[in-house]
Amino acid sequence: MSHWFHRNPLKATAEVKFDLKMVATDSQALKLCSDLKQARARLLELLPNANHEIDVVEPALTLYLSLLRGLIEVPEGENSDWSKLRHALRYRWSHSMLGTKAEGHYDAIYELVSVLQNTAFWYMKHASKIAAQEEVSMDEAKLVHRSLRRGAGLLKYAQDEWVNKLLESPAPMSDSDPRVHTAYLNQATAEAQEEYEEAGQQCKEYSHTKGPGTQAKPEKHQFFRRLAPIVTRTLEKCERENGMIYHQKIPYDPPELEIKATYGLVAPDDYTLPPMAPLWTPVTYSAFDLTKNLSEDDSSKSKTAQKVEGDLPAVKETEVHHTSKDHKNDSGCSIM
C-alpha cells in the first residue's frame, strides 16, 4: 500500500543566507537574520528523511514559519499590508515534476508556499514509510491516516491562502500549478475513485512511463490481486439476494440525494500559520533600513546572472525500506 503515496522527489532549494546585515541596524535585527538561517537549515536537514517522527519535524516547521512570517507580514501596529522585507531576498526552488530545473523569485511568499509543499510531501513519504512494514498495527494505521490528512491540509492551505498572492502566476506543471496542486491534494485525501478495471489498466500504463516516481508497479500490488474477487463475490451476492429475496428492481436512474454526499470522505486537517515570532516587534522591524542597501549591484538580479546559477542538485533522500511480503489481511490494504 505504501507505493500509493507520494513517490516524486522532494523539491530542491538553494541556500538562503538571510544576509541583511547592511540594512539591520541593531542586535535584535541581526539575531533575526541568524535565527532565520538556522531554522531553515534545520528544517531542510530533517525533510529528506521520512524516518523522522512527526514530533521532530513539526516543531522545526513551526519555528521557521514563525520567523518567516515577519518577512511577509508587518508586526501589529504597522500601517501596511506586506512587510518591506518581502522582496529583499531571492529564493530558488525546484519542482517535484520538473527535475532539477530551479525557479527563483524575490518573494517571501514563494518561499512560504514552497516550504509548505515540501513539508506536505514529507508527510506523505512518512505515511509511506509506516505503511511499508510487513505488519501495520492499528496505532500505526492511525499515524498513516494522520500524516496524510496533515499533508493534505498543508497543500490546501498553501493553495487557498497564498498561491494567489504570488507576484507571478505559477508556471505550467510547477508544484503551484492548480492542476498539479489539486492532484497532490486528491492523492493525499484519497478522493480519486476509479472503477477497478480502468484503474488497473491505468496502473499498468503508469509503470511503463518515463519520469519521476515510476518505480512503483501498482497493478502488481496485492490490493488489485486480492480485492477483485472480493468485490465480484459481494456484487453477485447482492444481485442474487436482491432479485430472489427482496424482489426489488434496481432503478435505471439513481435517485437524487438531498445533500452532497461528503460523509465517509477524508477531509484535510485545517492549518494556519503559527504566530509571528516574538522577536518581530515594531522596534526590530523598524531597525531594518532598506535605504542602506541602495548601493547593491543590480546586475545580480538580471536574467543573465540568474541563468549562470544553473540547476539545483537533487535532494539526497534517505532510503525507506519497503517489504516485499504481502500484508496479512484480505485486501492487501495496510489501512482499513
UniProtKB/TrEMBL annotation:
InterPro entries: BRO1_dom, BRO1_sf, BROX. Residues 4-306 form the BRO1 domain. Residues 295-330 have a biased composition (Basic and acidic residues). Residues 295-336 are annotated as: Disordered. Belongs to the BROX family. This is BRO1 domain-containing protein. It comes from Scylla paramamosain.
